[in-house]
Amino acid sequence: MPQELKTLPRFATSEEVEAAMTQGAVEVFKSLPNVYVLAEQVAGAGGIEKLSLTDWVRAGLLPKPEGTGGRGNRSRYPLYAVTCAHFVKGQREMGFSLAELRPQLIVKFGKKVVELLAEPRQSRNEARKSRLSDA
Hints:
Protein name: HTH merR-type domain-containing protein
CATH architecture: Orthogonal Bundle
Helix content: 40-55%
Oligomer: single chain
Domain HTH merR-type: 41-102
Shape: globular
């Protein structure tokens, strides 16, 4: 019996990243499993600082990144994170807050997108305020 070849994880090419920002997200979500991008690429698609990605993950707008493991551990996101970041960037430019965007992601990409994104949590500011009030 021939064994099925597993698709090994790899990083996206610049052409794949560009396509993820411009083509419909449905194609990106369904295709290219095990294709990853670095935090810098996701931040570039969202037009934000790399540190702000944490806020977007906390808001449930991006998937939680995986680590590459080992020395020089780097966060890697699935390719569809670029599509989500590009969409969120456009919505933010129209004045929407992070809290308002998760329902819009669901409308744009369908209910299945919720399975791919991180669960929303308190923002850093809200968590800090609750810690201070508990003290």
